[in-house]
Amino acid sequence: MAPLQMLLCTIGITAAAAFSPAHHIQHHAQQRTHSLSPLCSDKGGGSAIAAPKTKTVTTTVTTQKQKQEQKKKFKPSDPDLFKQEDFEDAPMFRLFLIGDESYEQEHVVTRLVEIVEDCSEDNAADYFKAAYQGGEAFMGKYPREIAETYAEQLTRSEPIIYMDVRDDKD
Fold first, then answer.
1. The pairing of beta strand 163-167 with beta strand 136-143
2. How far apart are CA 89 and CA 108, in angstroms?
3. In angstroms, rounded to a whole number, what is the distance separating the alpha carbons of residues 109 and 113?
């Protein structure tokens, strides 16, 4: 029974030391380090850092390059500033109103004026009459996207208004 008591006492002492304030342990560690290290002694001991036996010389060489060419200076009135580039005109397409006997003049004229930008009521009435008599009426030349947009919007009307887009080269 005695060895068991001794073991328990040793564990209890170790546990007590583990949970004791840390400043006591640090103080003991500092005293031990202080007494063992000659660099930390109060006597001023310790050695200085040795100087290297070889000397290193560093020289910096700088070179400057000058631009030989200067940019040509333009005056604001110089015509070379505004070079005219060759721009191709957008290919033009012809827009036609296709005649149909089921059309009502008031509906067709109203929709043409609403959708086609450069179309007046008088022009729309003339287009309607030409399409009714001849089967189709030429409404104008437009870039492809614009002509197709007009034709699509008029085709979506209720009741439908038939349109045709043709290449200007034909």
1. unpaired
2. 31
3. 6
d(CA 112, CA 110): 6
pLDDT (average), residues 145-150: 95
Contact partners, residue 119, CB within 8 Å, separation at least 6: 112, 113, 127, 139
What is the spatial distance between Cα 91 and Cα 151, in angstroms, rounded to a whole number? 17
> Which token pair is 21?
């304030």
Query: How many Å from the N-terminal Cα to the C-terminal Cα in the chain?
Result: 120
Tens digits of residue pLDDT in 80-112: 555 667 777 888 999 999 999 889 999 999 999
Beta strands per DSSP E along 92-150: 92-98, 136-143
